[in-house]
């Protein structure tokens, strides 16, 4: 019920955002829920309420990056928000936001790990040193028993190889092994 109410408030945001902005306290309370979908939707509502306030968004991200969230979906949303903030600010890779994204490469959920690797790989002006941890994770995904992870890793490594071919050279053997993969999409 909470998740449905939060989702409805996201839809209501388009027509009457003033009404939804009054629900900040309720959305903040819902963000500490044990239910993973409620947590995800609550953070989404809080972001949409504050998305025009740059300081508010950065406070939101810093608050939830310090908390331990249960929802991998909420982590993915925070990674996307942090990436957007990193692209807008001038601090670059020395920011705590980049450290948060890099720390998500060591998360227990494969969804969060892939989202963090994808975010790092798609950031503009990344050096080979910054790409290293993300490429290592993608290399591990190439040998995963799950076809979706193998596919995602190959697709993401392809994007990296376009800009940084030397960074992907370490993955060549793993990529060559995927040529004979039973899944023809890979």
What would you say this structure looks like, in words?
- By secondary structure, this protein is mainly alpha-helical.
- Helices cover 72% and strands 0% of the residues.
- The chain is built from 12 helices and no strands.
- The protein has helices at 2-15, 17-21, 24-30, 36-50, 54-66, 72-88, 96-103, 110-122, 128-142, 147-163, 165-168, 172-177.
- The protein is globular.
- The termini are far apart.
- The model has no long low-confidence stretch (mean pLDDT 89).
Mean pLDDT: 89
Main beta sheet, described? none
Describe the oligomeric state of these chains in a short phrase: single chain
Helix content: over 70%
Succession of helices and strands = HHHHHHHHHHHH
Measured by DSSP, the beta-strand proportion falls in: under 5%
Uncertain segments: none
Distinct helical segment count: 12
Q: Span between N and C termini?
A: 40 Å
- Strand segment count: 0
What structural class is derived from the secondary structure elements? mainly alpha
- Rounded to an integer in angstroms, the radius of gyration calculated over CA atoms is 18 Å
Give the CA-based shape.
Answer: globular
List the helices and strands and how they pair.
Layout: H1 2-15, H2 17-21, H3 24-30, H4 36-50, H5 54-66, H6 72-88, H7 96-103, H8 110-122, H9 128-142, H10 147-163, H11 165-168, H12 172-177
Helix pairs in contact: 1-4, 3-4, 4-6, 5-6, 6-7, 6-8, 7-8, 8-9, 8-10, 9-10
Characterize this entry briefly.
This protein is mainly alpha-helical and 186 residues long.
Features:
globular; 12 helices
């Amino acid at each position: 019920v909470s998740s449905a109410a939060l989702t409805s408030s996201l839809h209501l945001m388009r027509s009457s955002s003033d009404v939804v902005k009054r629900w900040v306290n309720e959305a903040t309370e819902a963000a500490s829920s044990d239910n993973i979908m409620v947590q995800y939707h609550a953070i989404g509502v809080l972001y949409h309420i504050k998305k025009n306030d740059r300081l508010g968004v950065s406070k939101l991200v810093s608050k939830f990056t310090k908390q331990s969230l249960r929802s991998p979906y909420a982590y993915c949303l925070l990674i996307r928000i942090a990436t957007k903030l990193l692209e807008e600010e001038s601090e670059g890779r020395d920011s705590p936001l980049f450290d948060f994204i890099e720390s998500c490469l060591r998360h227990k959920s494969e969804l969060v790990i892939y989202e963090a690797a994808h975010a790092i790989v798609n950031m503009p002006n990344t050096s080979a040193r910054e790409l290293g941890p993300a490429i290592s994770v993608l290399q591990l995904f190439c040998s995963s028993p799950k076809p979706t992870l193998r596919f995602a890793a190959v697709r993401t490594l392809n994007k990296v190889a376009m800009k940084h071919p030397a960074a992907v050279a370490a993955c060549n053997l793993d990529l060559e092994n995927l040529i004979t993969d039973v899944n023809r999409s890979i």
